[in-house]
Amino acid sequence: xxxxxxxxxxxxxxxxxxxxxxxxxxxxxxxxxxxxxxxxxxxxxxxxxxxxxxxxxxxxxxxxxxxxxxxxxxxxxxxxxxxxxxxxxxxxxxxxxxxxxxxxxxxxxxxxxxxxxxxxxxxxxxxxxxxxxxxxxxxxxxxxxxxxxxxxxxxxxxxxxxxxxxxxxxxxxxxxxxxxxxxxxxxxxxxxxxxxxxxxxxxxxxxxxxxxxxxxxxxxxxxxxxxxxxxxxxxxxxxxxxxxxxxxxxxxxxxxxxxxxxxxxxxxxxxxxxxxxxxxxxxxxxxxxxxxxxxxxxxxxxxxxxxxxxxxxxxxxxxxxxxxxxxxx
Length: 329
Known about the structure:
Helix content: 25-40%
Strand order of the largest sheet: 1-2-3-4-5-6-7
Number of strands: 14
InterPro entries: AbiEi_2 (IPR019238)
Pfam families: AbiEi_2 (PF09952)
Structural class: alpha+beta
Oligomer: single chain
């Protein structure tokens, strides 16, 4: 006959083994037969460098009545580890303040500081059936734009969806879809307080998404530049990308290929620059892809620089991209 301690241990081990890589778990199980709620052990979670401690109940849950005994003692620092919860029971947990991790990969934690909601079905099959952990996956243009805005200004994540759409220059539906994709990958939490969970992994995803989904659709026009790029007349809504942005940030790179983003109509900017079109020209004039509400910052500049430098596949540029990453991102 298998002891209750062994059963509890198996449930805990199986559940914690399915946590995403950015969540580290250290569980200490109580050895005695204990009957009170949340006395089966203690769980220490490390999430993106931040640490959280919980008193744990390890139980098998089949119906709402199995949860009821936990409601009175549930607190921000308590947590249930259990077998697979149905969506209904997962919602019952969250409605009654019961943090949980089940052995199917579902997680619901809201302790006032840490907010995690992971639906294992969405994790394994994100919107459109695409899995972000598959390296062949291509993040769409809309989600890539959203990623750029959230990395530029993380506070945007807590704005109403309609405002997020204006910041990212995407549709309202794309905001919901894009945030769902990022949540499914445990990059952000969309709990009561929305929060970025893994900015470093988001940055890696941004570099790849820019190359595959944004850069190929920038359009614009190549121009023959006579003279120095520093002498180009800049308006308030003109922004350097690529090598020029990198040179501004590091003073290390001597720019050869130039990329200039603008909010002006291209023909108007073209007349201002007084440069003639040339498919082989080194100045690439392109429309800004983000929304006008996004306040420009060194972080925004660094994100554009790193993404374009990495996309160039030039070893010198990649070296400078790493420098910018370390200094600004």
